Amino acid sequence: MLHYGQAEHVVQQRQQVLLAAYLAHPERFVQGQPSPPSVPTEVWINPPQPNPQSTQEDLGYQRKAGQRDIGGDVSISTLMKRDKRLCGSAQSPVSLPV
Predict the structure, then answer these.
(1) What's phi and psi for 10, nearest 5 deg?
(2) Which residue in 44, 24, 42 sits closest to 33, CA to CA?
(3) pLDDT, tens digit, 9 for 90 and up, residues 38-47
(4) Which of 35, 45, 33, 40 is nearest to 7 (CA)?
(5) Mean pLDDT of all residues in the chain?
(6) Chain segment 59-77, per-residue pLDDT in tens
(7) Distance CA 78, CA 61 (A)
(8) Cβ–Cβ under 8 Å, residues 55 and 15
């Protein structure tokens, strides 16, 4: 609604509903007459990251000097060698459901 310019209209409708509820049952509103929340200045589903690499770096997957990026096609053994914390020791067997 904010993106389509309908936010003020929705806030007015909410105010009418809240006022009607307050007038019908004022004992339910111990803090006085309610008001709708203010219109937000920004609305995001996924806010932009300041540095897109920060997520991978925070996980400990940054490349070291001279190291190749292995890309998206990674085997389980490669992952086990790469991060022993997630899979136990690199020698432990992994059984996958068939």
Answers:
(1) -65, -40
(2) 24
(3) 988 888 899 8
(4) 40
(5) 74
(6) 555 555 555 555 555 666 6
(7) 13
(8) no
Task: Identify whether the C-beta of residue 3 lies closer than 8 Å to the C-beta of residue 39.
Answer: no
Spatial distance between the Cα atoms of 45 and 47, rounded to a whole number of angstroms: 6
In whole angstroms, what is the distance from residue 12 CA to residue 9 CA?
5
Residue 22: partners with Cβ closer than 8 Å, 6 or more residues away: 29, 33, 34
What six digits make up the tokens of 33?
A: 């007459």
Q: Is 17 left (phi over 0), alpha (psi -120 to 50) or beta?
A: alpha
The two structure tokens encoding residue 36: 């709708």
